[in-house]
Design a protein that fits this description.
By secondary structure, this protein is α+β, with helices and mostly antiparallel strands. 50% of the residues lie in helices and 18% in strands. Strand 4 and strand 5 form a beta hairpin.
């Protein structure tokens, strides 16, 4: 018995060390190149990574299933900033009804009136039933318009749910249940976020299975290690560089992108970041580096830098996020590096094209003004020509009778003289 207790204690210590060692890979940095959808996307990814980390801690200390499920739901809502999280399991009945076992967040009796099944019927074609049937994550990106969500749409919208994600909690072919997450924004779950939360569901499945086999601590440890390896694979494929740094700014871990960018960095020497990430090496921390500020005040900082690389200048965005222990002390920092060179090039090209477009628009406006002036001049000329033609016509009409009268005045005078002569004879 003493031997078993000792091995369990050693197991917990090893798992704690493992989680602390890889905690750097569980935080995402804020994306600020554009204050648009891309920024929001990485912020959500950041929160999902934090959720994964905190849930891993809850799993390590789990003693019973109900408390674990409630804690996981709480972490998802409070840290992930989601609207609601709940875990359900299929009842052993003819209808295969999904019964909620744990929940956290703004629910307002939503689950009390919920009827969801695993069958391929209208009650089972939403995200929850689909995830249970297919053993794959199912997303309702737009609850307002998703036809499969019609049976629960009105109740969901009343409570501010705009999108939802259902994650099958599956272990070795055994369906432990389904983890549901609701967001207050439409289309809130992108590919990377789903992948991270799906990894959380895998961790939860392992833990639920292990709680039933708590005596086999070695097997439980192996499963957690496998889960961490899968999580490392996700972080390695994020497409950005991630580095774990000690309070002395020593490089403790690198993800795949950083290893590709800096293949000569040897972690066993615990090098300083400013000595191995700069060419030539810098004896002191870089002035633009945000890590020092983060280690000092425990807050997230970011900066941009232009770095020479071969025959070109590469633009990088650097964000530093703290890692704190339970007492709130900063014990390490995550440095995330994103190559934004192409984005800045496109941004410059866009600005150039916009300037050209504005210049063309001004030219068109000037041409339009000239055309309007020419049109006004031609119209005036046309009016003057019309008036001239009218005057000529009127003169012609007046000249004809005047000419007739003038040409007959002499004849009229003769007739008058004759008439007068006749009168006085």
């Amino acid at each position: 018995m003493a031997k078993t207790e000792k091995s369990c204690g050693e197991l917990e210590t090893e798992i704690q060390d493992l989680l602390q060692e890889n905690a750097d890979l569980h935080k995402e940095l804020q994306h600020c190149r554009q204050a648009g959808p891309a920024s929001d996307e990485l912020q959500r990814l950041h929160r999902a990574l934090l959720v994964r980390q905190e849930c891993s801690r809850a799993i390590v200390h789990a003693q019973e299933e109900p408390a674990l499920l409630t804690e996981v739901c709480r972490v998802i809502v409070e840290i992930g900033k989601y609207r609601l999280a709940w875990f359900g399991r299929v009842e052993d009945d003819g209808a295969k009804t999904v019964r909620p076992l744990a929940r956290y967040g703004f629910e307002n009796d939503y689950l009390a009136n919920l009827r969801i099944t695993r069958d391929d019927t209208p009650a089972g074609r939403g995200p929850t039933g689909t995830a249970l049937r297919t053993a794959r994550p199912a997303v309702a990106r737009f609850i307002l318009t998703d036809p499969a969500f019609e049976p629960w749409r009105a109740q969901a919208l009343e409570r501010g749910y705009q999108s939802s994600l259902a994650l099958p909690v599956l272990h070795e072919g055994r369906m432990e249940g389904v983890l549901n997450v609701y967001a207050a924004e439409p289309d809130a779950f992108d590919h990377d976020e789903v992948a991270l939360l799906a990894g959380l569901a895998d961790d939860l499945a392992y833990s639920l299975n292990a709680l039933r086999r708590l005596g086999d601590s070695q097997h439980f440890q192996e499963e957690l290690l496998e889960s961490e390896e899968r999580y490392k694979a996700v972080v390695d494929n994020l497409g950005i560089g991630v580095t774990l740094l000690s309070p002395d700014m020593e490089v403790l871990a690198l993800n795949k992108s950083m290893r590709q960018w800096f293949p000569n960095v040897r972690l066993d020497n615990r090098p300083k970041c400013h000595q191995v990430f700069n060419s030539p090496p810098s004896p002191t921390p870089c002035s633009y580096c945000p890590v020092g500020k983060t280690l000092k005040d425990g807050r997230t900082h970011e900066s941009f830098t232009d770095t020479p690389a071969d025959d070109e200048i590469r633009n990088y965005r650097i964000v530093a996020t703290p890692i704190k222990d339970r007492q709130g002390k900063v014990v390490a920092a995550i440095e995330m590096v994103e190559d934004v060179t192409e984005a800045k090039r496109y941004e410059g090209l866009q600005e150039k094209l916009l300037a050209e477009l504005e210049e063309k628009n001004r030219e068109l406006q000037d041409t339009n003004l000239e055309l309007k002036a020419s049109q006004s001049y031609l119209l005036q000329q046309e009016k003057m020509a019309s008036i001239g033609q009218l005057a000529a016509g009127v003169a012609h009409e007046i000249n004809n009778p005047i000419g007739f009268v003038a040409s007959n005045l002499k004849s009229l005078a003769k007739y008058v003289d004759r008439l007068v002569a006749c009168v006085f004879q």
